Amino acid sequence: NPGGAIACCGLVGGTSFNSSIFPFILRGTALLGIDSVEIPINSKKEIWENFGNSWSLDGLDKITKQVALENMEEEIKTILVGGQVGRVVLKL
Fold this sequence. Notes:
By secondary structure, the chain is an alpha/beta fold. The chain contains three helices and four strands, in the order βαβαβαβ. The protein has helices at about 20-25, 40-50, 70-80; strands at about 5-10, 30-35, 65-70, 85-90. Strands 1-2 form a two-stranded parallel ribbon. A two-stranded parallel ribbon has the order 3-4. Helix 3 links the parallel strand 3 (about 65-70) and strand 4 (about 85-90). The protein is extended. The model has no long low-confidence stretch (mean pLDDT about 85).
């Protein structure tokens, strides 16, 4: 939207952001980075509790899998050869 903003936080979707600069220039749209490192720990806790509850997305179980620490070496091999789809949660 003209005069709008896009917020970008963390590396959940990867380390790249590919886009044309034209929407930003032509519509006066801003790309905003969100500081997820230097905010106070109480704010972080509240945000993570929201992610785990009221902000939780449906269908995450379809793109994530839990891997025990003793199985992580095999999982890393799969990741390194490009065979990983979705996200891996390390279960300790």
